[in-house]
Amino acid sequence: VDGSLLSRLKNDVKNAMKNKDQLKLNVIRGLLSDVTYASKSQTSKSFSASDHEIYTIINRAIKRRQESIAQFTQANRLDLVENESSELLILNSYLPQQMSVQEIELEVVKFIDQLDINDVGIKDLGKIMKELNLDSAKAPKKVVVEVVKKVLSSRKT
């Protein structure tokens, strides 16, 4: 399946080569390499390089960059921080518009109200996370977990 995001990435590789944009070229090649690796390493042939699966790969790459930035900042290597930050901007440009924390919170509250459980608490975190279907491309799981925890702890009676 030639997803629209996959073809956009392949086109951007060509454009980056033409424009001699080495940083962007390296970032996109890295993503395409991750996509190829994921498609070959799946034990079940369920990986189809759909936009959603590519967003997951992009989010992983973003998380790696954020961790690197934190470590480089601690080590006072500002040259490396700058490079990682530039890569982060390129990666973020491929994600759809992110949901705000308030939007995520509204969805979580609405979902918990639909569950119709009287005594909902932190113990229900796993069940809620499993059933709450927010698009991970628009709402990173880490943020959603924090919001769910906050909503659940504010509900405690």
Describe the structure.
The protein is mainly α. The protein is 71% helix and 0% strand. It has seven helices and no strands. α1 runs antiparallel to α2 (22-41). The longest helix is centred in the middle third of the chain and has 24 residues, at 51-74. The radius of gyration is 19 Å and the shape is globular. It starts with a helix and ends with a helix.
Structural topology:
Elements: H1 4-18, H2 22-41, H3 51-74, H4 78-92, H5 101-115, H6 125-131, H7 141-155
Helix pairs in contact: 1-2, 2-4, 3-4, 5-7
Short description:
With 157 residues, the protein is mostly helical. The protein is built from 7 helices and no strands.
Could you tell me the mean pLDDT? 84
Number of helices: 7
Helix content: over 70%
Output the helix-strand order. HHHHHHH
Largest sheet data: none
* Computed Rg: 19 Å
Which structural category do the helix and sheet elements fall into? Answer: mainly alpha
How would you describe the shape? globular
Which blocks of ≥5 consecutive residues have pLDDT under 50?
A: none
Q: How far is it from the N-terminal to the C-terminal residue, by CA?
A: 50 Å
Strand content: under 5%
Number of strands: 0
Family: Belongs to the AIM41 family.
Pfam families: YqeY
Subcellular location: Mitochondrion
Organism: Gigaspora margarita
